[in-house]
Amino acid sequence: MLTGQQYKESLKDGRMIYLEGRLVDDLESEPALAVPLQVIADGYDKYYSAQPDAKNPLTIAPRSPEELRDRIPVITEMDLLLNVTYQSLMTLQVAAARLADHAPEFVPRIQAYVEDARRRDIRVTECITDAKGDRSLAPAKQHDPDAYVHVVERLPDGVVIRGAKMHISAAAFGHDLMVMPTKSMKLDEGDYTIACAVAVSSPGVHITNTTYHPRGGDPRDFPVSSTNSMPDSMVIFDDVFVPTERVFLDGQTAHAAVFAHSLGLWERLGGVSFMVNQADELVGLASLIAEANGTAKIAHVREKIDEMMIHATLLRAGLEAALANAHATSDGFYYPDDMFTNVTKYVGAANFSSMVRHLHDIAGGAVVTAPSMADFDNSDLRPLLEKYLGTGPGVSGEYRARLFHAIRDTTADALGGWHHVTNVQSGGGLFAQRLVTRKNYDIERARALALKAAGLAGA
Question: Is the predicted pLDDT of residue 238 greater than 90, yes or no?
Answer without folding.
Answer: yes
